[in-house]
C-alpha cells in the first residue's frame, strides 16, 4: 500500500489554502503516495469570523487526533501569530498527548508551510518554533533547503525559505500568493513525497 500523506491547514483568508493546492499538486506529481487534505478545527465562532471578514471554510474534513496516526507524513500549513502557529493549531496539538504517550507519530515525516502579513513577519521563526511539536512526537522534519531557484530570486518579493514554502499576504490580506510562491509550494510537495517514500521503504 502506498504511504499516506496528510496536508492539514488552518487558513482565515484563504492564502494558506492556495499554497496547499500547489503542495498537493507537487505531492501527486511523484506518484506512489496517497494524499488527503484536512483542516484544523475552528475555535472562533461565526460572529467573530464574520466580523473579521474571514473567507469561507474549504469543503474538506476536519482532522481528528485518531486520524492523525494513520499518516506516514504530514505537512502542516498555517498563518503566523507572533512567530508561532495560531491558537487553533496549538489547541489541536495540545490534544495529541495520547499519540505522544504511544509514540504513534514517531519516525513519520513532517513539514510546514506558512503565511505572514509582511516580508519580515516571522516566516522562519514560525517554522522553527513549530518544530518543537514535531521533535517531541519524534517526527522527522523535512525542510526544502534552497534547491528551488525561486528562493534565491531577488527580482521580486518572494515568500518562503529553506524551512518551507510561504506567502506574504499584506496587512489587509490583499496580496495573493505569487506564481513563484506557488511553484515553491509545489516543489515542497514533490520533494516531501520523495522523502516519505524513502522513510516508508517504497
From TrEMBL:
GO CC entries: membrane
Database matches in Pfam families: FMN_red
Domain Flavodoxin-like: 5-192
GO molecular function, one term: NAD(P)H dehydrogenase (quinone) activity
InterPro entries, alphabetized: Flavodoxin/NO_synth, Flavoprotein-like_sf, Flavoprotein_WrbA-like, FMN_Rdtase-like_dom
Database matches in PANTHER family: FLAVODOXIN-RELATED PROTEIN WRBA-RELATED, FLAVOPROTEIN-LIKE PROTEIN YCP4-RELATED
Xref: NCBIfam families: flav_wrbA, PRK03767.1
UniProt similarity note: Belongs to the WrbA family.
Name of protein: Protoplast secreted protein 2
Organism for this UniProt entry: Linderina pennispora
Amino acid at each position: 500500500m502506498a504511504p499516506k500523506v496528510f496536508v492539514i491547514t488552518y487558513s482565515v483568508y484563504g492564502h494558506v489554502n492556495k499554497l496547499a493546492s500547489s503542495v498537493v499538486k507537487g505531492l501527486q506529481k511523484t506518484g506512489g503516495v496517497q494524499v488527503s487534505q484536512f483542516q484544523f478545527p475552528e475555535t472562533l465562532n461565526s460572529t467573530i469570523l464574520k466580523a473579521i471578514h474571514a473567507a469561507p471554510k474549504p469543503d474538506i474534513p476536519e482532522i481528528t487526533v485518531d486520524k492523525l496516526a494513520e499518516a506516514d507524513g504530514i505537512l502542516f500549513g498555517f498563518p503566523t501569530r507572533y512567530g508561532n502557529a495560531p491558537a487553533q493549531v496549538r489547541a489541536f496539538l495540545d490534544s495529541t498527548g495520547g499519540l505522544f504517550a504511544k509514540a504513534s507519530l514517531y519516525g513519520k515525516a513532517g513539514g510546514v508551510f506558512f503565511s505572514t502579513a509582511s516580508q519580515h513577519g516571522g516566516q522562519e521563526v514560525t517554522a522553527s518554533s513549530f518544530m518543537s511539536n514535531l521533535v517531541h512526537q519524534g517526527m522527522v522534519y523535512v525542510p526544502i533547503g534552497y534547491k528551488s531557484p525561486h528562493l534565491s530570486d531577488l527580482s521580486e518579493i518572494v515568500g518562503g525559505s529553506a524551512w518551507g514554502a510561504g506567502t506574504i499576504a499584506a496587512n489587509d490580506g490583499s496580496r495573493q500568493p505569487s506564481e513563484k510562491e506557488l511553484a515553491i509550494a509545489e516543489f515542497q510537495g514533490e520533494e516531501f513525497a520523495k522523502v516519505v517514500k524513502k522513510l516508508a521503504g517504497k
